[in-house]
Amino acid sequence: MARVLIVGGAGYIGAHVAQALVDNGYSVRIFDDFSNGLRRRVDGKFDDVVVADVLDRDALVKALDGIDSVIHLAAKKAVEESVANPLKYYENNVGGTLNLLAAMTVKNVKKLVFSSTAAVYAPNDKSSIEESDPVEPLSPYGATKLISEELIKNVGIAEGISTISLRYFNVAGSSRIEFGDNSKDNLVPKVFAAIKRGNEPEIYGDDYPTKDGTCIRDYIHVGDLADSHIAALKKVENSMVHEVYNVGSGSGYSVQEMMDQISESMNKKLHPIHAPRRAGDIPQLIASISKIERDLGWKPKRTLKEMIDSAWQSEVGNSQ
Ligand SMILES: NC(=O)c1ccc[n+]([C@@H]2O[C@H](COP(=O)([O-])OP(=O)(O)OC[C@H]3O[C@@H](n4cnc5c(N)ncnc54)[C@H](O)[C@@H]3O)[C@@H](O)[C@H]2O)c1
After folding, report:
1. Is 33 in the pocket of ligand 1 (CB under 6 A)?
2. Which of 129, 178, 265, 300 is spaced 20 to 30 Å from 136 by Cα?
């Protein structure tokens, strides 16, 4: 049975990836410092858990004992915080990736799948973004991911490590109640948090050149995203590649459409507050997913309704 080290495996996406791996016959070891990871996601589900920091290279070398491949999701991911404190982001995200590559080289582990982001792309008014489109991150967070992609590719080529970076678009939903998203920045948990406080959710900008005036984004169900890691892992297991792939649903949903689905899933009428545009928000960002469909044979299967219903069930389940 192939053994996979999941760095950042107690996180929202990492726990889903860990479960998908187990369901596909892999054995997993989770490595996480629990800076944003949650015990509820691992306790009683995954028994091989290393509590350590990716900046601790010795701990990584030790954790790689008996490991065949690595999925690296550990990062800080709050865009605004990265603007206020770029050093913290470069140190954790780029420094962590560097350490991991060094430890993998020491231990001769030759397969890596990395969590990147659509935040690496330059603003673009194309109907959908392809991997070959220009990159120019708007935030230090996005920059740490682009630099990590480059690091991974360069070291991968030199050291014979087969690598894939997956550029996630907007992730939502949950496949298990306990795995739910605890972040404060993504749209769906943000709406739930506002309602919990007794407030109405906010929509930033309703005068964009889109069908209903609100921004359009590509939302992908976290279960589909987790499955894309299995496809990527099989690719790095069977061939020497240094690739990047978009992972999204390939469909655009406006903020208003998301509010409508959230309202239906919660069975609660929402009266969103229409706030001014936020600096840096572009009207539309949708993934082209033809490259990943063609090369890895992966495509998303879950609907928007399944995504939001599952996010709401998780929110309710974890509030009890
Ligand atoms: N959630 C999204 O919509 C989204 C979109 C694009 C990319 N991503 C990327 O996907 C990855 C996972 O995101 P997530 O939403 O699950 O976030 P998350 O914060 O829930 O998961 C990240 C995990 O990494 C751990 N971690 C962070 N720094 C660490 C360190 N120094 N040492 C050890 N562990 C550390 C955290 O404790 C956490 O468990 C991140 O790399 C993120 O940048 C997420």
Report:
1. yes
2. 300
